[in-house]
Structure formats: C-alpha cells, structure tokens
Amino acid sequence: MDECNKAFNNLKDALTFDPVLEYAETWKQLILDTVASHGSIGAVLSQKIDGHQIACHRLFSKCLSRPERNYLL
Question: Tell me, what's a Pfam family for it (predicted)?
C-alpha cells in the first residue's frame, strides 16, 4: 500500500506543481497519441523539447455512453 500512496503523491505533485500544458512550438513536429477501450477514449497532443523531454499541449478524455460503446473502433 505504501507504493500506491507514493505513486499517487508523485503523480499529484507532477500535475499540480509543474506546468502541465505548454504552448506548442509551431516549427517543431507534433506527436498525437490516442487510446481507446470499450468504455473510454483519450488523446494527448505533445512535442519533444530538447530531444528528451516531452511537453504536453492538449489532453482529451471521454467516457463513452452506452450507445457510443456500440461504435466500431
């Protein structure tokens, strides 16, 4: 249980102290990552900065309604 609490606190710190979203550098390549499951969809628009770090520009997530769950992925 200690590991779970530590992981949760690390995530909470990362989302509340550092800037989560940054402005895009329009001259650099953008990266779009998507994920879909039976009950939800999500996407992250990001960009590599300094060759190693990744800066997030937009986040999207949605829980699907019952009719939407019938759509083909």
Answer: RT_RNaseH_2
